[in-house]
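Give me structure tokens for this 183-residue protein.
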Amino acid sequence: MVKSEELKRLFEPRYSGRSYDSSRDVTENQLDSLINAAHAAPSCYNEQPWRFLITHKNRSKESYQLVFNSLVEFNQNWAKNAPILIVSIASLKFSKNGKPNRWGPYDTGAAAFAMMLQATTMGLMAHQMGGFDEEKLAKSFQISNEYTPIAVMAVGYETKGEEPLKKERNPLENHFFKGEWRE
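Here you go.
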């Protein structure tokens, strides 16, 4: 059984920084570890509705640039130093019957989070972004409307010596309700 201290050591270091070291690369073995972590995530009916478009600044330059160009300017300003940009994409239909899968984006988020935690355990930093042009990205890669891009994740090594962003959280009572609903 995993102890709460072990979980705390896993979750606490994870944060979404913005200072990537452009001189340090991510290896194929590291990418494989991220992929395997996402692959192990749970999903409704074991559908595994996630798709991850992985682009590398040096090995898939054109694809990387298309993803980068879809980011809003604020995100471009800091993500430009990340060697990896990963697009998480959710299938909106069940493969077994073609019916709408409203859990597809939720399950894709779970897989992306597993990927982020794996990155943290390997000394990498992963930052998910919602600030991107979904339509531009879908058009650039000819993604059909049966799929929806959920987020873009920058992955790489944090710049040494940079002051980390403060990880702020709202009070627990604002988000967790025991036995009754509050707005």
